[in-house]
Amino acid sequence: MVQRQTTMATTAEEVADTVPAASPRRVPAWARLLLRLAVTAALMAVALRGVEWPKLLGLFATIDWRWWLAGFATGLVSQVIAAVRWALLARPVGFPYSIGLFIWRFFEGSFFSLCLPTSIGGDVVKAYRLADTTPGRLLAGCTVLADRLAGLAALSVLAGATLIQKELSLGLAATLGVGAALLGAALAVFWIGVGSLDRLLSLFPEPHAARQFISRLLPYQMRPSLMTRAVVWSLFVQMGGAVAVALVARSLGVALPLSVWFAVVPLIALAMVLPISISGVGVREGGLALLLKPEGVPAEQAVAIGLLWFLTTIAAGLIGGLLFLLDRTPSHQAPTGGADG
Fold first, then answer.
1. 184, 211, 244, 334: which is deepest, by most CB within 10 A?
2. Could you give the CA distance from residue 163 to residue 154 in angstroms, rounded to a whole number?
3. Are 244 and 237 in contact (CB under 8 A)?
4. Residue 275, helix vs strand vs coil
């Protein structure tokens, strides 16, 4: 156990060494952590307000763990698809590794997202573990950011389409049309962004380090279909995540149409992106209590669903922790340019 703790502490120190020194005026890390702990506790207190504790505790005695395991397995599949999406974005810019390695590193990031105050910490570890050099890690960070943006775009499309469908009582064809329009808008933003890389490149002189760095991202401009495919993959990831939560809810006897979960889960996921609580605790439970109330779900059941959802996150993160302990090498080989996967 001491060896494992030393191993994790060493990695945390290595990651910290790659981050520029903090400004003297910057709020200390311990103060930010205490603030986030206080916000997490406050959000959880709000989520539990009005909850009858005997009913909440009684729900845990009625859990059908077969449904929970089905939800957990579905969530794992979604994370594997998310790792494949990351590989799709990382391999063309110089990380020609196997899909298995990206899956491995993705789950490691999930583990550190649990251990560190925000999910961004997990993203930093993913980038750090994918490359062996500081420039390589910066480039890996860009691939993680592109992966995150693709996921956020898919979340917005899914949540927007289902909310508009519910508000306007649209049929299936009209809902698909709305979703296609939102997807087209999201892709247009990406195409405009990557299409500007060459103009951004021209702003820097030939030997400038920034020019060399941006040039590594030009495959995204030369192959705009990469971001299109990443966003499509992200739609499957987000729908899988919504199905996973729906299955977890079934373990407590809550059976709602998938359209409800396609709206509720992305909205909560978007809220959890904000670094206001630790691992989304309080945001998840309070969001479910608020959004499921119109569907007739009591606060006790909503909070219990949130806690079981969090349990799936912890279980997946522990898998990542085990993978990290099994392989602590930064990467299997140094990144090289030109691989297109």
1. 244
2. 14
3. no
4. coil
93 DSSP 8-state letter = G
Nearest CA among 95, 129, 47 for reference residue 310: 47
Instruction: Tell me the per-residue pLDDT of 147-192, one tens digit each, with 9 for 90 and over.
Output: 988 898 998 898 888 889 888 888 888 888 999 999 899 888 888 8
Q: What length does the chain have? A: 341
Residue 51 has which token pair?
């909850």
- Dist CA 187 CA 319 (whole Å): 33
Check residue 295 and report its DSSP letter: G
Q: Give residue for tokens 């495919």.
A: 229
Q: Over the stretch 38-89, which tens digit does the pLDDT of each residue have?
A: 888 888 888 888 888 899 999 999 999 999 999 999 999 999 999 999 999 9
Residue 329 φ then ψ, to 5°: -70, 140
Please choose, from the candidates 332, 252, 319, 327, the residue with its C-alpha nearest in 3D space to the C-alpha of residue 292.
252
Contact predicate 302/205, CB 8 Å: no
